[in-house]
Structures are given as structure tokens and as C-alpha cells.
Amino acid sequence: MAKFDFKCTSCEYVQEEILKISERDSAKIACTKCGKPSKYKFTPTNFYMHFRGDGWPSKTIREKSYRKQRNEVMSRRQADHVAKPELQPNFNGMKTGSWSDAQAMAHDAGKNAETYTPLIQKERAGKVKPKTMKKVG
């Protein structure tokens, strides 16, 4: 749809009409003041187009594309530079060699040792790798 100027043939009043581009030449527009026929008047300074439907590039589409790319870059940077905390086998803050050892220590201390069961299962499946303790000296 586009905005076109039509000029009256008798009173020379100029009015704006919004029409399809294909209808511009065949449109029979009557003057709103005197009712006589009006003709299309080309005015390059008063050019207005309104695109309807999807697929027309607009600021929001460009903005969404830019933000998507920016988020991908930032997530890669964050993955490279942010230290990820690892859960180490422990009981009451004392590091142990494996989650099984931590469970045994909890059981010996009379604490609830069932909370260690999922971690032991992951450890046995190879999903959680316990860090080996280094000997100092």
C-alpha cells in the first residue's frame, strides 16, 4: 500500500489516498470538496510506503538477528573464561578419594549416607570423575 496525492481538475484541491500501487492509475477518485474527478499528482517529497505481511526487513528483524549472534558470541566467551565449579568428593568439608569413601565416612559418623547414592552411581557410570588428591612433600 502506498500514499498518493490526487489533485482535483476543477478546484485544484489536493487530497491524499492510500491505495495499492497497481490501483493508482485505474482509481477513480472524486474530490472531497466539490465532487469532481481528481487526477494523480506525483510528489516525490511525499513518498510513503507501508509494507504488510512477513518477510519485509525491518528494524526489529535486524535487531533480533543481531541479538541472536551477539548472545552466541557472549555464551562462547563465557564458556571459555568462566571457571566452572566442580563438586569434589567430601564429607563435612574433608576431601575424600571417591564418593564411596565419603558415604562410608558419613555412615561411620552416624549421618544420613543415602544422599551420596546418586553421586556414587554417576561416579560408577563415569559421569563424575573424582579428583585424585596430590601428596604434598
Describe the structure.
The chain is an alpha+beta fold. About 30% of the residues lie in helices and about 20% in strands. It contains three helices and seven strands, in the order βββββαββαα. It has helices at about 60-80, 100-110, 115-125; strands spanning about 1-10, 15-20, 30, 35-40, 50, 90, 95. Strands 1, 2, 3, 4 and 5 form a five-stranded antiparallel beta sheet that branches. The termini are far apart.
Question: Please, what is the average pLDDT?
Answer: 80
Largest sheet: 5 strands, antiparallel
C-alpha termini separation: 82 Å
Number of helices: 3
Rg over alpha carbons: 38 Å
The share of residues in extended strands comes to: 15-25%
Instruction: Tell me the helix content.
Output: 25-40%
**Estimated structural class:** alpha+beta
Shape: rod-shaped
The unreliable regions are none
SSE run: EEEEEHEEHH
Number of strands: 7
Supply database-style keywords.
7 strands; single chain; 137 residues; alpha+beta; two-stranded antiparallel ribbon; 3 helices
Question: What's the quick description here?
Answer:
The protein is α+β, with helices and mostly antiparallel strands.
List the helices and strands and how they pair.
Layout: E1 2-8, E2 14-19, E3 29-30, E4 37-41, E5 48-49, H1 59-81, E6 90-91, E7 94-95, H2 99-108, H3 117-125
